[in-house]
Specification:
This protein has helices at residues 5-20, 49-64, 98-104, 106-109, 121-126, and strands at residues 24-30, 40-46, 74-76, 83-87, 91-97. The protein has 127 residues and is α+β, with helices and mostly antiparallel strands. The mean pLDDT is 95. Keywords: Cytoplasm, Repressor, Translation regulation.
């Protein structure tokens, strides 16, 4: 079983909000087959703590603006700004400082899971 439509909608909205704030290496991983507690991980990174926080703020704003509003049930790591986790139950968003992203390598940890394709709309509009 793959990620639900709701999880896909939330993940793609979160990814676009991150892209709008110049997040790097945005990946959506469908973990529904491997985990019972969530359907998808959204991974994004930024080169500094201030940008990590800006990306987190943009994601929260985007998901609360969805027709079926979404607010995180849990939020961790905001104080340090190196790795912020937003748990929306259907999806879990990880916004990491570039160094944390390389060190913890969540992409490699979940490499056997399929990804959900995401293309930044700014790249599509530029063509």
């Amino acid at each position: 079983m793959s990620a639900s439509e709701r999880a896909r909608e939330m993940a793609l909205s979160a990814a676009q909000a991150a892209a709008d704030k110049k997040a790097q290496d945005i990946v959506i991983i469908d973990v529904a087959e491997q985990m019972v507690i969530t359907d998808a991980f959204v991974l994004a990174s930024a080169p500094n703590e201030r940008q990590v926080q800006a990306i987190v703020d943009a994601i929260e704003e985007a998901l609360v603006s969805l027709p079926e509003k979404a607010k995180p049930v849990r939020r961790e790591g905001e104080r340090s700004g190196r790795w912020v986790l937003l748990d929306y139950v259907d999806i879990v968003v990880h916004v990491q400082h570039t160094e944390e992203r390389e060190f913890y390598a969540l992409d490699r940890l979940w490499k056997d899971c399929p990804t959900i394709p995401f293309v930044d709309r700014a790249l599509v509009e530029a063509e």
